[in-house]
């Protein structure tokens, strides 16, 4: 017997399926019999346990376990407890034990037994049968409640139990049965109402029409149960039209129906798999493709005979070595856009280039006109760019990226073989394109240009990446087209005459970059074994049938069309779209390759699939969406594997050329398919690794690229964001402005008008390593309030142990009264001390209060103004330490607040504990601020001139006086106008995380309105403030998956971005975040210069403690900040130290230092107490030595012991009277 098990379902699901066969509104299954359960059709997007987000799935609730967590404890009776205690699973299936047929009879028996014991039934007679478990069954309950025979049946049942019931006894027992069964139906109705409400909410309906399939002996046999259940459900949900259908055939029919559905799906799955099988290449097939590519490479290098792989010499003999200097012009024609770019190379290899772009659109009539018109246009664009850069009189060397097949005989000549990409300009094919451009420039007679090289985009990509990584000797384009180039040894290139001979002392074999033009592999039939009928159809319908066969299997220009052909075939076979072949599906080019990236962007993005298909006019089901996703995955994976096989052939050839057992090499890559498709790059890399195991290949994406995305990048820079790009000269100018504000803020007479308030913190020292003790830190700076216990010990070395708790600060407290706020803090502190068994200890407390405060001493801070949404009344202008002490005293908590600090100071002190050179603290997160150790002699707001004190700059307000107006953009002004505090904190609004995402959104809105992004489409989401957050900016700027993240984020905004849109958005994010890092670097440079001057040092060595989500989470921010700071202050050795424990630990460190200094002061006072003289002693001395003049100054102030304190020599009279010396 051959049996295949296709489905396994439980009885509840089978009941729903049985009833669903007769009534398609049936979306709920219900069992009320010996046991009870329910199932229903849930939206797949809500079922986190299953992958997928579109369509529905039946969920088996197993609701019998409802109440196992105590949720029903209010409704459980002593009889329920007795039933549960004697069951085989105590504490389990509580709901089931209250409602199901297995327990109803037993519940009735227990109630009747108790009533009999109390003498309320049977004259107090309790026979053994009534004491026996199971003697009253649910069948008895149903019989007792029969409409006409109920009392008679009750008497018969009780007589069987050995009782002689009266008429009243029978009525009472029948009533007990009614109450128990009625409770059961009520509870089931309540559970069912919850399910129906869920379905109604899922469908966003005001009224619901639905059918419930029901089975089970209680429902079927109890004479009243069904009616009661229906009535209660309709009373609980009057807006729902609920039909109850009894499953006549039980659950077996349902299992058969599920099996029938499973069989249909399995059959369809087999047919789909058979269709897609040719796209799934085995390792043997990939090895064969690699061998075919290798043979094609070798044949193309030969002098004689045709070859499908052209292997065109580029006459590029070297990759960059880092010594390149000067200014060069780069011209790029590769599609409908022409790009002009000025590149400045500076000393050093890494990232020492500056690029200035401008883009020009080539009109269609020019692309398809005469060659002279085309190149005259290009010459005009170059003229405009040189004007734009102010370099028209300069004689610049230029490189020409010409992304069309060319035959080269030298690096500065390129004979156009044929036009592609929609170009049809006459009199160009067979001509030298460099010469055509030179002639056009000569006709203008406006500028002089030396075109020294012509390269295609693949070679350009390799050279661009080689400047970043010297091991880059291969270039790969995986985008609209597909191609590769690599450095080949000259001796192997037989098709050119080897002019470059090895010279004396030349240790390297001369090489030349070869443009493989590998897209032609297979034109000779060598790939016929892997070409599917769908590939053949795509080739047949192309403009160059029989040509570029490998490219048609791998490039973005054709993958979408292959998918369309497969979908068309599946639909014709009745496997998709209900067999309906629409005109849309028959339209070539309708399924663009960008849809593959979108469809495969999530684990199972079925909602996205359906949305795309609907956009294409294809109405799909959930099953259709799954199949479309499979088709896209098969086609794109094959493309990536074929590219990987080709790349394995290239790198293995290089390895063998050099006679190496193992090769380390880098491949520079460009192209939207590689960069934007979520899986293409990973599959390509893995295939290369497997097929070329002796090569360690690194793939380096080209940051600039040569595609159309550069057009939008340039448009962004030139039209909108040019003012956000700062030269070092501009940044140093900002540094000087900031330094002037530092001095203004430190002055007593000028502080009131300064934007930098330079608030003294009365923190006079960073930790010196001798601190020890047990401290508490309070950290209030947002919606979460944190308390820490910090133990500093000295056993073998200084160690810190921390315990912490986080408490919520509710909105009503944040916006309530100050008394409520500090009562809440005190209550949390009391709870913390009790939890950690330190309630009876009076520990020193540090208070991190992250709001602007005016301090006159370390343990005093007057709130200047609330920020961060806090609005507690009665606090501004008050001493927050005094308010907190009052609340602590009221609660009876024992605590001694020794210091109040803000989060920036806390960060500096935290890092200072680990590195005693740390004298600067910075926060770059939601907000931004900085503090540093200033010489006390410069702080006019504090008395004294010796030593240092930490100053809280409150630098977020830098520029509030208009000092930064020349660098603010229209987007900054719009941010400010829409903020809670217009005109204030302008620097913070330009750099902090609270505003960065919004800046990006405003730029994108303007670009979209002008048609530069998203084809001019603007969605309500894009127009909504706050929809782009700083965390999105961080995600978009990730090096590997940034463009994929950009697409996902834009999709959530209702947009369908092109590859160019994603590149442009990523560049906008980079410029906005780079500006932030640059501005912070400029202001930090001002502080570092100040420290260096204060110390009179020729070179400063210092550490900056830093914290904040933007610095921590943004993938590029820290690197950019460090690099810019070191460039602006080259005479400073700066270490950046991340604060791992936040500002709370810092508050404890401030307290520890204060405690250490106080202890030192106490010890000094104790030692000097011997020098204190009473008035009587002093008078006695005077009497005994009337002629002796003491060379000391006697204080006129008496202390509490009537002692006069001796202060020291006369020149020390101005010292603080609290200090003996």
TrEMBL record:
Record localization: Cytoplasm; Mitochondrion membrane
Pfam families in UniProt: Hexokinase_1, Hexokinase_2
Record has Cytoplasm as a keyword: yes
Protein name: hexokinase
Sorted UniProt keywords: ATP-binding, Cytoplasm, Glycolysis, Kinase, Membrane, Mitochondrion, Nucleotide-binding, Repeat, Transferase
GO cellular component labels: cytosol; mitochondrial membrane
Domain Hexokinase C-terminal residue range list: 28-261, 474-716, 920-1153
Catalytic activity entry: a D-hexose + ATP = a D-hexose 6-phosphate + ADP + H(+); D-glucose + ATP = D-glucose 6-phosphate + ADP + H(+)
Gene Ontology BP terms: glucose metabolic process; glycolytic process; intracellular glucose homeostasis
Boundaries of every Hexokinase N-terminal domain copy: 272-467, 717-912
Parts forming coiled coils: none
Record family assignment: Belongs to the hexokinase family.
The UniProt record lists the keyword Metal-binding: no
UniProt membrane topology term: Peripheral membrane protein
An annotated Gene Ontology molecular function: glucokinase activity
Alphabetized PROSITE patterns for the sequence: HEXOKINASE_1, HEXOKINASE_2
């Amino acid at each position: 017997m051959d049996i295949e098990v296709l489905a396994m379902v439980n009885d509840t699901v089978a009941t729903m399926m049985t009833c669903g066969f007769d009534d398609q509104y049936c979306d709920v299954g219900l069992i009320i019999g010996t046991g009870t359960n329910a199932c229903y059709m849930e939206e797949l997007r809500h079922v986190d346990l299953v992958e997928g987000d579109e369509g529905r799935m039946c969920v088996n609730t197993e609701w019998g376990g409802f109440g196992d967590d105590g949720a029903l404890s209010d409704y459980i009776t002593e009889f329920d407890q007795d039933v549960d205690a004697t069951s085989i699973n105590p504490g389990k299936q509580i709901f089931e034990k209250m409602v199901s047929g297995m327990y109803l009879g037993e519940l009735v028996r227990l109630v009747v037994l108790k009533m009999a014991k109390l003498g309320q039934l049977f004259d107090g007679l309790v026979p053994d049968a009534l004491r026996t478990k199971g003697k009253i069954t649910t069948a008895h309950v149903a019989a007792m409640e029969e409409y006409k025979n109920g009392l008679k049946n009750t008497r018969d049942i009780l007589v069987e139990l050995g009782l002689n019931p009266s008429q009243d006894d029978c009525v009472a027992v029948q009533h007990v049965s009614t109450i128990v069964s009625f409770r059961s139906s009520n509870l089931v109705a309540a559970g069912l109402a919850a399910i129906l409400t869920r379905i109604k909410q899922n469908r966003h309906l005001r009224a619901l029409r639905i059918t419930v399939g029901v089975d089970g002996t209680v429902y079927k046999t109890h004479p009243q149960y069904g009616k009661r259940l229906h009535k209660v459900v309709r009373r609980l949900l009057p807006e729902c039209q609920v039909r109850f259908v009894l499953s006549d055939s039980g659950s077996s029919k349902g299992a058969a129906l599920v099996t029938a559905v499973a069989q249909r799906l399995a059959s369809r799955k087999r047919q789909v798999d058979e269709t897609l099988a040719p796209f799934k290449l085995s390792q043997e097939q990939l090895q064969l493709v690699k061998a075919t590519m290798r043979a094609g490479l070798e044949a193309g290098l030969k002098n004689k005979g045709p070859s499908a792989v052209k292997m065109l010499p580029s006459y590029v003999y070297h990759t960059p070595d880092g010594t390149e200097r000067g200014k060069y012009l780069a011209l790029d024609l590769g599609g409908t856009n022409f790009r002009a770019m000025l590149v400045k190379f500076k000393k050093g290899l890494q990232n020492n280039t500056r690029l200035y772009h401008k883009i020009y659109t080539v009109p269609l009539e020019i692309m398809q006109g005469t060659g002279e018109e085309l190149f005259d246009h290009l010459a005009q664009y170059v003229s405009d760019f040189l004007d734009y850069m102010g370099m028209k009189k300069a004689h610049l060397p230029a490189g020409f990226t010409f992304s069309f097949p060319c035959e080269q005989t030298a690096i500065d000549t390129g004979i156009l073989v044929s036009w592609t990409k929609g170009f049809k300009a006459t009199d160009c094919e067979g001509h030298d394109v460099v010469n055509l451009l030179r002639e056009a420039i000569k006709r203008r007679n406006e500028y002089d240009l030396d075109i020294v090289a012509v390269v295609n985009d693949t070679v350009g990509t390799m050279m661009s990446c080689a400047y970043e990584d010297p091991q880059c000797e291969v270039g790969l384009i995986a985008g609209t087209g597909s191609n590769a180039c690599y450095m080949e040894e000259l001796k192997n290139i037989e098709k050119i005459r080897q002019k470059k001979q090895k010279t004396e002392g030349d240790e390297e074999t001369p090489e030349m970059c070869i443009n493989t033009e590998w897209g032609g592999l297979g034109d000779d039939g060598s790939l016929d074994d892997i070409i599917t009928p769908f590939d053949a159809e795509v080739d047949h319908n192309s403009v160059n049938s029989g040509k570029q066969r490998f490219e048609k299997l791998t490039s973005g220009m054709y993958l979408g069309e292959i998918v369309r052909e497969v979908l068309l075939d599946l639909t014709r076979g009745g496997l998709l779209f209900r067999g309906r072949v629409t005109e849309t599906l028959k339209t070539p080019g309708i399924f663009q390759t960008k849809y593959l990236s979108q469809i495969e962007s999530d684990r199972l993005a079925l909602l996205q699939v359906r949305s795309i298909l609907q956009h294409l006019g294809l109405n799909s089901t959930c099953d259709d969406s799954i199949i479309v996703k499979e088709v896209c995955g098969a086609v794109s994976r094959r493309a990536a594997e074929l590219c990987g096989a080709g790349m394995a052939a290239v790198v293995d050839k290089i390895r063998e050329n050099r006679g190496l057992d193992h090769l380390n090499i880098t491949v520079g890559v460009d192209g939207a398919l590689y960069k934007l498709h979520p899986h293409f790059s990973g599959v390509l890399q893995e295939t290369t690794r497997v097929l070329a195991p002796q090569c360690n290949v690194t793939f380096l994406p080209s940051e600039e690229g040569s595609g159309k995305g550069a057009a939008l990048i340039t448009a962004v820079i030139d039209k909108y964001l040019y003012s956000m790009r700062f030269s070092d000269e501009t940044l140093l100018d900002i540094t000087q402005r900031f330094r002037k504000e530092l001095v203004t803020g430190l002055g007593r007479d000028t502080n009131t008008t300064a934007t930098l308030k330079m608030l003294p913190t009365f923190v006079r020292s960073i930790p010196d390593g001798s601190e020890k003790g047990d401290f508490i830190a309070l950290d209030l700076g947002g919606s979460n309030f944190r308390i820490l216990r910090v133990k500093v010990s000295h056993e073998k070395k200084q160690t810190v142990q921390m315990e912490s708790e986080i408490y919520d600060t509710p909105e009503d407290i944040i916006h309530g009264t100050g008394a409520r706020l500090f009562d809440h803090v005190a209550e949390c502190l009391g709870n913390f001390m009790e939890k950690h068994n330190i309630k009876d200890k009076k520990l020193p407390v540090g208070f991190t209060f992250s709001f602007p405060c005016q301090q006159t001493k370390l343990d005093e801070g007057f709130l200047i103004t609330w920020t961060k949404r806090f609005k507690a009344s009665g606090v501004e202008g008050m001493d927050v330490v005094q308010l907190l002490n009052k609340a602590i005293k009221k609660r009876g908590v024992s605590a001694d607040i020794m210091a109040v600090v803000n989060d920036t100071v806390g960060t500096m002190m935290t890092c200072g504990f680990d590195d005693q050179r740390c004298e600067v603290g910075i926060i770059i997160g939601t907000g931004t601020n900085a503090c540093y150790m200033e010489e006390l002699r410069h702080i006019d707001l504090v008395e004294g001139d010796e030593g240092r004190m930490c100053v809280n700059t409150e630098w977020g307000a830098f520029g509030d006086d208009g000092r930064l107006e020349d660098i603010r953009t229209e987007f900054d002004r719009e941010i400010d106008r829409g903020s809670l505090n217009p005109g204030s904190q302008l620097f913070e609004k330009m750099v902090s995380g609270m505003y960065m995402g919004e800046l990006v959104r405003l730029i994108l809105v303007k670009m979209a309105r002008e048609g530069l992004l998203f084809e001019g489409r603007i969605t309500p989401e894009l127009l909504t403030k706050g929809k782009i957050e700083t965390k999105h900016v961080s995600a978009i700027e990730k090096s590997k998956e940034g463009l994929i993240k950009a697409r996902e984020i834009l999709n959530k905004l209702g947009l369908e971005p092109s590859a160019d849109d994603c590149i442009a958005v990523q560049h906008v994010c980079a410029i906005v975040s780079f500006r932030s890092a640059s501005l912070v670097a400029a202001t930090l440079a001002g502080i570092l210069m100040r420290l260096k001057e204060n110390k009179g040092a020729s070179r400063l060595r210092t550490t900056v403690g830093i914290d904040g989500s933007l610095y921590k989470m943004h993938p590029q921010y820290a690197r950019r900040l460090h690099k810019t700071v070191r460039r602006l202050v080259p005479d400073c050795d700066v270490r950046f130290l991340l604060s791992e424990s936040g500002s709370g630990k810092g508050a404890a460190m401030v307290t520890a230092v204060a405690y250490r200094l106080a202890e030192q002061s106490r010890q000094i006072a104790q030692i000097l107490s011997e020098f204190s003289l009473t008035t009587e002693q002093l008078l006695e001395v005077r009497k005994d030595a009337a002629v002796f003049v003491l060379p000391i100054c006697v204080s006129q102030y008496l202390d509490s012991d009537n002692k006069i304190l001796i202060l020291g020599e006369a020149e020390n009279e101005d010292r603080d009277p609290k200090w003996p010396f």
